[in-house]
From TrEMBL:
It comes from Psychrobacter fozii. Belongs to the short-chain dehydrogenases/reductases (SDR) family. This is Peroxisomal trans-2-enoyl-CoA reductase. It comes from the Bacteria. Its EC number is 1.3.1.38.
Length: 260
């Protein structure tokens, strides 16, 4: 896909992408790297992360990989501490790590519901808070982009994920208020169905039914998410905070939810 941005747009900036070792997160990291940024990719699976980091370096990108479990506050604190010890300052945080499993609400155990909220909502909050403190220590502004999930029509079959992601959208607005005086812009991107390997866990027939209902009848591409994120992190979006950009082929209008 053609990149519309200037190749040195993020020169001198460092971008931290959670879940940056795969799928959308890796595409976001690659895009920032191509635009001149140093990128830090962080996730749990070290093997996959190192492979992803190598692929970025082979493309001439300054990439570092670090371990994090965003559900664990100590692990999040450790990530930021390691960066600070190495003298690495983060300018842009992309909270991309997340996920869920499909199950009807009636079948969800309390622990199953909690695990998805813990990952997507609490994990995102912990990363945002650690980043804001890091910005305060540096006395520099910052930018947060939270990747959520198109949930405008509810999310039948994934009640835990819909609730958690809607929580992140509201968190995005609240943190935009609270941290405006720190110079931190906070925005979200809500992708619809995006072509990544992670979709293999879903029923292909249900996926196709969803695509057929869209205004733009195809899956989105990770690179399309990456370019939207780059826009929101760029000076061109310097007047944008507290918003959520739907990147979903019109799903927020058509109500093409996973289940009827
Ligand atoms: C409804 C039909 C869908 C049709 C298809 C349309 C979909 C289109 C749009 C999709 C758009 C979204 C795409 C994506 O988000 S891509 C996703 C990227 N990756 C993932 O989603 C994987 C993420 N999953 C996880 O990280 C983990 O599974 C999770 C965090 C969710 C849970 O991890 P945890 O380590 O906490 O899990 P535990 O094993 O400790 O279990 C905790 C409790 O959760 C219950 N559980 C876990 N998995 C399942 C499952 N697959 N089904 C049911 N229940 C599950 C588990 O039993 C535990 O509960 P109990 O203690 O009560 O047993
Ligand atoms: N593909 C799609 O259609 C859509 C995806 N999304 C969202 O976009 C994001 C990326 O999805 P996609 O690339 O498709 O899927 P992936 O499964 O490839 O990405 C999820 C990433 O999150 C990381 N992750 C999961 N749990 C944790 C954790 N506790 N701590 C740190 N990292 C974690 C995973 O790495 P590891 O396991 O190594 O920790 C993985 O890199 C997710 O939040 C997803 O829900 C939203 C809408 C649509």
């Amino acid at each position: 896909m053609e990149n519309i941005f200037r190749s040195d747009l993020f020169a001198g900036k460092t971008v931290l992408v959670t879940g940056g070792g795969s799928g959308i997160g890796l595409a976001i990291a690659r895009n920032f790297g191509t635009l001149g940024a140093r990128v830090v990719i962080a996730a749990r699976d070290q093997e996959r992360l190192i492979e992803a980091g190598q692929s970025l370096r082979e493309a001439g990108i300054d990439a570092i990989e670090l371990a994090v479990n965003i559900r664990d506050n100590d692990s999040v604190a450790d990530l930021i501490e390691q960066l600070e010890l190495q003298g690495i300052g983060i300018d842009v945080l992309v909270n991309n790590a997340g996920g869920q499993f499909a199950a009807p609400a009636l079948d969800l155990s309390a622990n199953g519901f909690r695990s998805v909220v813990d990952l997507n909502l609490t994990g995102t909050f912990l990363m945002c808070q650690a980043f804001a403190r890091h910005c305060m220590n540096r006395k520099l502004p910052g930018c947060i982009i939270n990747i959520v999930l198109c949930q405008a029509n509810g999310l039948p079959g994934m009640a835990h994920a819909g609730a958690a992601r809607e929580g992140v959208v509201n968190l995005t607005r609240t943190l935009a208020w609270e941290w405006s005086n720190l110079g931190i812009r906070v925005n979200a991107v809500a992708p619809g169905t995006i072509k990544t390997e992670a979709l293999d866990q879903y029923d292909p027939v249900a996926l196709q039914e969803g695509i057929d209902k869209l205004l733009i009848k195809r899956m989105g591409l990770p690179e399309e998410v990456a370019q939207s994120v780059a826009y929101l992190a760029s000076p061109a979006a310097g007047f944008i905070t507290g918003t959520c950009l739907a990147l979903d082929g019109g799903e927020h209008l058509t109500g093409a939810s996973p289940q009827r």
